[in-house]
């Protein structure tokens, strides 16, 4: 029986306009009524999730969201941190050194802010911050280190061709010290080593007393691969990339056609009635 439904957001739960389809909301309510706990599992920071929690009606209710690509788990009841992993000061110094050698801008997430280290935010960074309903703020490295803030993840942002060169030059070095993923063509992410959506999801599932064969995960992109490999019930969106479709056990419709709802109706609910 499936007890936990892990949902990526962009390209999965949200359509191409970053909106929740009304029919998806109806199908998610059906999953809840069947005793399944839906959990958002996203690379977004908290600011990029809160408006959707309100629309879903989940804020203030028992539940969880896994954000920052698995680095942070928040309770939806009171928005307290359930668990987290973060980057050390030494790791932040290394990330900044590489940023200074490249054209990519280094950004980091703490509990509240989208921070740009040592530079004024570029138009690309400002655009990306807008997608998660916030404005980027400049912070100097020494200020960041002195603040003792919890830094959950870092991202390098640049135009695609420049980031292709960045990944080729610095990717092998960064992969030695961080969990890395090219989550978008303009974003190269660095998380604490061993941290990804699967680690966050498995920690939460175990804490709730669920085994991986009681977990369904739905995703579309590279940062969903580990999560899909972990879940006993793995579903690729119709718009997913080929790597995701290859690893998933099932495939559903696209994010513009309520693929999440289709997976709930055609896979999850029948499995729980068997």
Task: Characterise the protein shown here.
This is HAD family phosphatase. One of its GO terms (cellular component) is cytosol. It comes from Streptococcus danieliae. GO terms for molecular function: magnesium ion binding; phosphatase activity. The protein is built from 10 helices and 14 strands. The protein has 274 residues and is an alpha/beta fold. The strands form 2 sheets. The chain has an 8-stranded mixed β-sheet with strand order 5-4-3-2-1-12-13-14, with helices on both faces. Strands 8-7-6-9-11-10 form a 6-stranded mixed β-sheet. A hairpin with a 4-residue loop joins strand 6 and strand 7 (114-117). Helix 1 packs parallel to helix 10 (259-273). The longest helix is centred in the middle third of the chain and has 18 residues, at 160-177.
């Amino acid at each position: 029986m499936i007890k936990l439904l892990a949902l990526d957001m962009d390209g999965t739960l949200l359509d191409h306009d970053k909106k929740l389809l009304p029919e998806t909301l109806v199908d998610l309510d059906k999953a809840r009524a069947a005793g399944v706990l839906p959990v958002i599992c996203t690379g977004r920071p908290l600011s990029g999730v809160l408006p959707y929690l309100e629309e879903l009606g989940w804020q203030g209710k028992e539940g969880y969201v896994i954000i920052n690509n698995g680095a942070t788990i928040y309770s939806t009841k009171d928005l307290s941190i359930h668990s987290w992993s973060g980057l050390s000061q030494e790791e932040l110094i290394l990330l900044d050194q590489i940023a200074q050698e490249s054209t990519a801008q280094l950004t980091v997430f703490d509990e509240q802010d989208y921070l740009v280290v040592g530079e004024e935010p570029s138009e690309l960074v400002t655009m990306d911050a807008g997608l998660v309903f916030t404005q980027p703020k400049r912070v100097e490295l020494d200020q960041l280190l002195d603040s003792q803030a919890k830094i959950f993840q870092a991202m390098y942002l640049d135009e695609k061709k420049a980031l292709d060169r960045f990944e080729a030059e610095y990717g092998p070095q960064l992969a030695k010290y961080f969990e890395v993923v090219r989550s978008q063509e303009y974003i190269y992410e660095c998380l604490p080593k061993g941290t990804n959506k699967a680690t966050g999801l498995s920690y939460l599932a175990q804490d709730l007393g669920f085994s991986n064969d009681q977990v369904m995960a739905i995703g579309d992109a590279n940062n969903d691969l580990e999560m899909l490999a972990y879940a006993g019930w793995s579903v690729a969106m119709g718009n997913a990339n080929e790597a995701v479709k290859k690893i998933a056990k099932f495939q559903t419709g696209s994010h513009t056609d309520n693929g999440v709802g289709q997976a709930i109706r055609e896979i999850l609910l029948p499995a729980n009635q068997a």
